[in-house]
Amino acid sequence: MYNNHRINYKNMQQLIIQVADKEKAEMLLKIISALDFVKSVEVVEDNNNIADSEQDFFDLAGIWENRDISTQSIRQEAWRTENK
Fold first, then answer.
1. Which residues fall within 8 angstroms of residue 18, CB to CB, at 6 or more apart?
2. pTM (2 decimals)?
C-alpha cells in the first residue's frame, strides 16, 4: 500500500520516447503504466514526416513571382515611420 508519502508534482520529470514499431509501443505503454510511480502516460501519434514538410515548402514556390520586391524595399517598408 501507500506509505503516507506526499508526491510533489512540481518536481516531476517528463520523458518523451519515440518508438517506430506500433506493437512495441503498445507493449512499452503497458509496462510503463503498471509502474506505481508513473502518474500518467500520454500517447501521441506523430503523423508529420519529412515528405510533408518538403511538400509544404515547395507549395510556396513562385509566391514572389512578378513582384518588384528587393531587400532594400522590404527594409524601407519595415522601418517606415508615419508623419503625424
1. 46
2. 0.42
Residue 15: burial class (beta carbons within 10 Å; 0-12, 13-18, 19+):
exposed
For residues 31 and 19, what is the distance between their CA atoms, to the nearest angstrom? 14
Distance CA 70, CA 78 (A): 12
Most distant pair of Cα atoms in the chain: their distance: 74
Q: What is the CA radius of gyration of the chain?
A: 26
Q: Quick one: which of 23, 15, 68, 65 has its CA closest to 39? A: 15
Q: How far apart are CA 15 and CA 48, in angstroms?
A: 20
pLDDT in single tens digits along all 84 residues of the chain? 444 555 566 778 888 888 888 899 899 999 989 998 888 888 887 666 555 566 677 777 778 788 888 888 888 888 876 554
Confirm if 39 and 9 have CB atoms less than 8 A apart.
yes
